[in-house]
Design a protein that fits this description.
- The protein has 329 residues and is of the alpha+beta class.
- It has a single domain, classed as Beta Barrel (Catalase HpII,  Chain A, domain 1).
- It has nine helices and ten strands.
- Strands 1, 2, 3, 4, 5, 6, 7, 8, 9 and 10 form a ten-stranded antiparallel beta sheet that branches.
- A hairpin with a 5-residue loop joins strand 6 and strand 7.
- It is globular and about 60 Å long.
Amino acid sequence: MRNRRLALLLGAFVAIAAPWPLSAAEATPEALVDALNAVFGKHKGLRASHAKGTCAEGRWIPTAEGRALSKSPLFAAEAPVVARFSLAGGNPKVSDKSRTPRGLALHVALPGGAEHDFVLLSAPVFAAKDPDTFLGLLRARAPDPATGKPDPAKAKAFMEAHPDTKVQPAYMAEAPITASYATTPYWGIHTFWLTDARGATKPVRWSFTPEAGVVGLSEEELKQRGDDYLAAELHERLGKGPAAWTVRLHFGAAGDPLDDPTLIWPEDRPSVAVARLEITKAAAPGEKGACDPLMFRPDNLADGFAPSADPILAIRSAAYAVSLARRME
């Protein structure tokens, strides 16, 4: 485990040094992590974002349609998965009853030493269209040094000036507060390029739909739940059997946005069910797991996939590397 941690840390420094396509130099990985810490506080040993989470394990099961679609090793055979379910934001005590997005991160260890990571949200959109806007949003939400409290008027004014920052909150305001991590849908908010079996490249996005259905909680049911029900519920549920999601690739068409994670593709775009994600075991509440030392990288892709020019996608791994280095101190 120690060697694994050292390898990850070395990878973090390599990632930090890598370039990313930004139109302005203000939003560096370090600046983003600093801004997250300013909003949510610094919590020793925890992630700067998605601080509250629980580890799980399972397997990735490609479909025949997936194997026919692409020669990528991601679709070649079943593979073990390390997963982390979480809540967005850097507050480790955030209530599970809040309307903050849920997260699902996956590391798929493929045959022959290949691997593929997913970093998914329970909303199909991100909080801002580019790193500079996201940095500005975080700074607008940070506590005022004079009062020690955030200024709601400042955050509101920033969002009014940047309409892209309203998309995710509007979606979450209408989405159900789900009863379980296992009854939550997840999306890949970025576009990737897939090389198909004929060698053609196509823009794609991911969705993970729970086989148990999307189950929300009523106001009365929410009152009966504690602030930390999600990890306990998942651990208890998996003790009775696995939870599963249908994994689909959605194909973009001409004119669809490829580099703005706040814009959703039309629902009528064609899609293919390429795999089944099965989660079989979760850590008990408060227990560590295999996911804790990992840095899930959205640009860690198996052959056959390549990142788009989305600037949020480009900077995420470098920001995660900064967070990883700090939580290992």
